[in-house]
C-alpha cells in the first residue's frame, strides 16, 4: 500500500544499500540535494541510457546533443524565465517558513473529504489561473490553513518568487555578468536548432534530445528525490510544421506512455493530467502522473510549445531561425512538441514500483525479505556469480564466467557468507539472477540459477548463462 511509511522505508533502504545519500551528509546534509551511491548511479545511468536509446537510436529523425549548463543571460529573458519562472509564495510570520501557495493548499486539501477537497482545489486552480494573489490569500485565511511549524495562520501577502539560481561569470572587478544555472535543458536545444538542422541536414518533422542537469531554487523541497534543487532532465523537442502540432502532441502523448508501460510498470499506476492553466508558451499540455508513495504526481510533461521559443530567440538574438520546407515551398518557424521527464523522478518511480516487503513465513519459521523487483534492463547488477565454497576450483570457474559476461552486462562476484545470505543481499539491490557454482558444475558443466522474483532455482548449462541474461535485457 502506498503511504508515508513506504516512502520512509524506501529512503532508509536506499541509504543502507548504497543507492542514494543525502548530499554532504557528514555536515548534516544540504537540503533537497542528493548524491547517488554505487547502485543508485548504475540504476540512474540505466534509465538514462534506455531513454537515450529509445529516442535517438530507435528514431531516424531524432538526434541527441549535450549543451552547456551556462548559457548567455539573454536566453533566459527570451525564454520568459526571468519574468515568468516564479511561483506564488506565502510566508508564515511566526515561523518565518515560506510555502508555495499551491502546495500549502494541496496539503490542507489532503486532510479533507473528497468533495470538499475537490471544491477547494478547483477554487485554487481558478485563482492561480487568474493570478489573483489577494484571492489566494483570502482562500488560505477563509480555510484557516495553518503553518505546520508554528501552528498559526499569521500569513504575509502572496508574492512571486523566481526559482532560478544565479552566479557571476568572470571576475567581480571586471563588472562580471550575471549568469544563471539553467532551470531546464530545453533552451540548449532551441538555441542550437539551426546548428543541428543544418549540420545534420534534418528535415521536418525531426527531434533533438538531451539529458543533463537543471537547477531550481525550490522553496518547498520535499518527497526525497521527487523535488530537488539540483536534478537531471531528459528532454526532447520535436520540430513540426505549423498546423500539425495537435496530431504530433497526441502522437507523443501515446508514445511516451508506451515507453513507461514497456518497462513493465502497471498501467493502474499511471494517469494523464491535462493542464487547465497553460504555461505562457503552450497551446496544449499534460502530465504523465505516477502513483508515488505520496499519491499521483507528475513524472513527465508533454507540452505543445507552439513557435514561442524559436520566435522569441529570433527576436532577442536578431538571427533568423526559420526553416525552408521544400515540400510546400515555404519558410516558417517550426512548432514544437516537447517531452520532458525528470531522471530523478524516473529513478524514484522505478524504486517505488520495485520495492517490496515480502512475508515468507511458513508454519515452521518466521521469515521475510526486502526485494527490489527492477526490470532486468534497469537493474544495477544483472548477474551475481557465487561459488558455493572458496576452494576446490569453484572460484576459478566463477571467475571464468565473470570474465565471459562482464563485457556485456554488469556482474557481481561474492564468495563470503552462506548462499542464503548472499541471495538476500542480491534481492535487496535488485539483482534478477544469481548463479551458484558447486561441485556438480565440475562434473557436468551445469550451474544453479536462482530467480529473484519467484526465488525458484533450476540447473542450466554454464554455457547458457550469458545468453539467458542477455535475452532479458534486450528490449529492442
Ligand atoms: P512541478 O510541477 O512538479 O514543479 P514542473 O511542471 O515545474 O514540475 P517541468 O518544468 O515540466 O516541471 O519539468 C519537467 C520535468 O522535470 C518534470 O516532469 C519533473 O519530472 C522534472 N522536475 C521538475 N522540477 C524538478 C525538481 N525540482 N526535482 C526533480 N525533478 C524535477
Output the keywords:
alpha+beta, seven-stranded mixed β-sheet, 23 strands, 476 residues, Rossmann fold, BirA Bifunctional Protein, domain 2
At a glance:
This protein has 476 residues and is α+β, with helices and mostly antiparallel strands.
What does this structure look like?
The chain has 476 residues and is of the alpha+beta class. The chain contains 16 helices and 23 strands. Among the domains are: 4-65 and 178-351, BirA Bifunctional Protein, domain 2; 381-473, Anticodon-binding domain (Rossmann fold, 3-Layer(aba) Sandwich). The chain has helices spanning 4-16, 38-57, 73-78, 81-84, 101-109, 114-129, 133-142, 186-190, 193-199, 245-262, 308-317, 343-354, 394-405, 419-429, 439-444, 465-473; strands spanning 20-22, 34-36, 62-64, 86-91, 98-100, 159-162, 166-169, 177-180, 206-215, 230-240, 270-274, 284-292, 295-306, 323-325, 330-332, 335-342, 355-359, 368-372, 383-387, 411-413, 433-437, 446-451, 457-461. The model has no long low-confidence stretch (mean pLDDT 94). The chain has a seven-stranded mixed β-sheet with strand order 3-9-10-16-13-12-11. Helix content is 35%, strand content 26%. The structure holds adenosine-5'-triphosphate. Adenosine-5'-triphosphate (ATP) binds at residues 184, 216, 218, 227-228, 231, 233, 298-301, 340-342, 344-345.
**What's the shape?**
globular
Indicate the proportion of strand residues: 25-35%
The residue fraction in helices comes out at: 25-40%
Mean pLDDT: 94
CATH class category name of the domain at 4-65 and 178-351: Alpha Beta
CATH A-level architecture of the domain at 4-65 and 178-351: 2-Layer Sandwich
Looking at the structure, the CATH topology of the domain at 4-65 and 178-351 is BirA Bifunctional Protein, domain 2
Q: What oligomeric state best describes the polypeptide chains here? A: single chain
Ligand catalogue: adenosine-5'-triphosphate
Query: Which structural class do the helices and strands define?
Result: alpha+beta
Radius of gyration: 26 Å
Tell me the distance between the termini: 32 Å
Q: Give, in spatial order, the strands making up the sheet with the most strands.
A: 3-9-10-16-13-12-11
CATH superfamily of the domain at 4-65 and 178-351: Bira Bifunctional Protein, Domain 2
- Total number of helices: 16
Main sheet characteristics: 7 strands, mixed
Please report the total strand number as a whole number. Answer: 23
- Detail the poorly predicted runs: none
Amino acid at each position: 500500500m502506498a503511504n508515508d511509511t513506504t516512502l520512509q522505508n524506501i529512503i532508509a533502504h536506499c541509504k543502507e544499500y548504497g543507492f542514494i545519500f543525502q548530499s554532504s551528509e557528514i555536515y548534516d546534509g544540504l537540503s533537497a540535494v542528493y548524491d547517488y551511491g554505487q547502485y543508485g548511479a548504475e540504476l540512474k545511468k540505466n534509465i538514462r541510457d534506455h531513454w537515450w536509446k529509445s529516442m535517438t537510436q530507435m528514431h531516424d529523425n531524432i538526434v541527441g546533443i549535450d549543451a552547456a549548463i551556462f548559457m548567455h543571460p539573454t536566453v533566459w529573458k527570451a525564454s520568459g524565465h526571468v519574468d515568468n519562472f516564479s511561483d506564488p509564495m506565502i510566508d508564515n510570520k511566526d515561523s518565518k517558513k515560506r510555502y508555495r501557495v499551491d502546495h500549502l493548499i494541496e496539503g490542507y486539501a489532503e486532510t479533507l473529504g473528497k468533495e470538499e477537497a475537490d471544491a477547494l482545489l478547483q477554487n485554487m486552480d481558478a485563482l492561480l489561473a487568474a493570478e489573483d494573489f489577494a484571492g489566494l490569500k483570502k482562500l488560505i485565511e477563509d480555510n484557516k490553513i495553518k503553518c505546520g511549524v508554528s501552528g498559526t495562520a499569521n500569513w504575509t501577502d502572496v508574492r512571486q518568487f523566481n526559482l532560478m539560481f544565479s552566479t557571476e561569470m568572470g571576475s567581480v572587478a571586471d563588472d562580471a555578468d550575471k549568469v544563471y544555472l539553467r532551470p531546464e535543458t530545453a533552451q540548449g536545444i532551441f538555441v542550437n536548432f539551426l546548428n543541428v538542422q543544418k549540420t545534420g541536414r534534418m528535415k521536418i518533422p525531426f527531434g533533438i534530445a538531451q539529458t543533463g542537469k537543471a537547477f531550481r531554487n525550490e522553496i518547498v523541497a520535499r518527497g526525497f528525490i521527487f523535488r530537488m534543487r539540483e536534478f537531471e532532465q531528459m528532454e526532447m523537442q520535436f520540430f513540426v510544421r505549423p498546423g500539425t502540432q495537435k496530431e504530433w502532441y497526441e502522437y507523443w502523448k501515446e508514445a511516451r506512455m508506451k515507453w513507461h508501460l514497456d518497462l513493465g510498470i502497471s498501467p493502474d499506476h499511471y494517469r494523464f493530467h491535462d493542464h487547465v492553466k497553460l504555461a505562457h508558451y503552450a497551446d496544449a499540455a499534460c502530465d504523465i502522473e505516477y502513483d508515488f508513495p505520496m499519491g499521483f504526481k507528475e513524472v513527465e510533461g508533454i507540452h505543445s510549445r507552439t513557435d514561442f521559443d524559436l520566435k522569441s530567440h529570433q527576436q532577442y538574438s536578431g538571427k533568423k531561425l526559420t526553416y525552408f520546407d521544400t515540400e510546400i515551398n515555404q519558410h516558417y518557424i517550426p512548432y514544437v512538441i516537447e517531452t520532458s521527464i525528470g531522471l530523478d523522478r524516473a529513478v524514484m518511480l522505478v524504486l517505488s514500483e520495485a520495492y517490496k516487503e515480502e512475508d515468507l513465513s511458513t508454519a515452521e519459521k518466521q521469515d521475510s525479505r526486502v526485494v527490489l523487483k527492477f526490470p532486468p534492463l534497469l537493474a544495477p547488477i544483472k548477474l551475481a556469480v557465487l561459488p558455493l565454497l572458496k576452494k576446490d576450483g569453484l572460484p576459478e570457474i566463477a571467475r571464468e564466467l565473470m570474465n565471459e559476461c562482464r563485457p556485456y552486462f554488469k556482474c557481481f562476484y561474492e564468495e563470503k557468507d552462506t548462499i542464503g545470505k548472499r541471495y538476500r543481499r542480491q534481492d535487496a539491490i535488485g539483482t534478477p539472477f544469481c548463479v551458484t557454482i558447486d561441485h556438480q558444475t565440475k562434473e557436468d558443466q551445469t550451474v544453479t540459477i536462482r530467480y529473484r522474483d519467484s526465488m525458484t532455482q533450476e540447473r542450466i548449462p554454464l554455457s547458457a548463462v550469458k545468453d539467458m541474461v542477455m535475452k532479458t535485457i534486450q528490449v529492442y
